[in-house]
Amino acid sequence: MPSITSRMSLGEKFTLVISVLSFIVGFFGLALSESVSNLYSDAKIFATKDSSNLNSLTGQEGYIGVITISNRGISASEKMKLVISFDSTPPKYEVTSDEEISKSETNGNDIKIFLDRLSKDAKIKLAMYSKLPISYRIQYIDNKGKGPIELEDHSKQDNIKEIILLLVTIISIMVIFYIFRRHAETLVTEKINSHYIELQNKISELRDEIGNIEILISEPSNSSAPITEETSKGFTQRLADFMLKT
To answer: Is 217 a member of any domain?
Structure first.
């Protein structure tokens, strides 16, 4: 690692630092995101709101409001009570669900809906009619206490943020991988070239030694001087030195 980073230019080091920081931000942002937390959270209650002015649709006075509540957690919400609070008298309403509704009632400015459970992916739909614009607040209580109900538009915004964080994380990993791979390949190529040059030098030395040996071998036949013990020892020593070098 130090040998690779030491070979980088200042611009590459700056890019690497930015990429690492971006990866850390993206990774921890995803780890703490809504989608990931939903994987290990219990019940997660979401709501979508829709309202229409009947005057613009049918020419009649009044407003229609629809709330759709769903559980997107990994487990059911047990002993659930929904409380929809209004600023004044609650409007006329009708509630339906793919779960069994134990009871629904009006209490003061609140509409309360009781269920034994709201399973994963189950929904509750509350349709309301009023001559005035409908404004309300929603909360729920179950066997684990009081919890917030998140609006669908907030969920969509969170999804966009998660997609951006995912892209930042992926791009950061790709940049880091590219920088290190390019320098690692360069380093390997240089090492191969260095070994190749060293091998070539060894081959040259070997050729020189072979040439010297051939000269020593041919000297007795071309010279009238006899091969003495000193000459033989000199030849043996040079051959041993050559073997040690290789």
So the answer is: yes
CA atoms of 184 and 1, how far apart (whole Å): 9
Contacts of 140 (CB under 8 A, 6+ apart): 45, 69, 77, 80, 81, 82, 83, 146, 147, 149
* 131 lies in the same domain as 202: no
Domain membership of residue 109 as a residue range = 43-143
Domain count, the chain: 3
Cα 114 to Cα 80: distance, rounded to the nearest angstrom: 6
Give the pLDDT score at 127: 93
Model's pTM, two decimal places?
0.49
Regarding whether 63 and 117 lie in a shared domain, the answer is yes
Which range, 7-16, 54-63, 170-179, is most confident? 170-179
CA nearest neighbour of 119 among 147, 80, 151: 80
What is the amino acid identity at position 58? T
> DSSP letter string over 7-44?
TS-HHHHHHHHHHHHHHHHHHHHHHTSHHHHHHH-S--
- Contacts by 230-239 with C-beta closer than 8 Å and gap 24+? 238/209, 238/212, 238/213, 239/213
Cα separation, 67 vs 71, in Å, equals 13
Q: What is the pLDDT of residue 181?
A: 82
Q: Do 85 and 165 belong to one domain?
A: no
